[in-house]
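Hello, quick one for you while I still have it in my head. My current little project is about how a certain protein chain folds up. You're getting the sequence in one-letter code plus the fold written as tokens. Would you mind checking whether the tokens look sensible for this chain? Here's the protein in full, and shout if anything looks odd to you:
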Amino acid sequence: MILVSSCLAGLEVRYNGTHSLDNRIQELLAENRAITVCPELLGGFSTPREPAEIIGGDGEDVLDGKAKVVEKSGRDVTELYIKGAYRTLKKAQEVNATIIVLKEYSPSCGSSMIYNGEFKGKKKVGNGVTTALLKRNGLRVISEENVGDFLDEIK
């Protein structure tokens, strides 16, 4: 089974109430080869919500207690992001996910790049909190930007 970010399936769950529909992901869902997950919603957030970025590192650092996830207004939401990551891990394990396709740049789902914590649209290399936890547990996480490279393997 393939686990995919809900926003990539066209669900309007992003922080600003929009989606990031990827037709390749939608096709996998239509074929019953994938199911959706949104770590932020699993962590207790609603839609829409204030944008958040990781301050002081990346998802690995958040899990190690060396960085935090903060909303633009300054509210520390680290615990909600960690909660969502662990609930996503549980779901991935329950469905025996072989590949997890997550939304790049997100403080939860980024799998190679995340926003740099300045709320200025600048990005840096790093994993989001959920991606870091999934990878620590031996799961394979890829970005929607690279899903084309894996379509033959997925199909």
In short: The chain has one domain: 2-154. Residues 78-94 form the longest helix (17 residues). The chain has a mean pLDDT of 95.
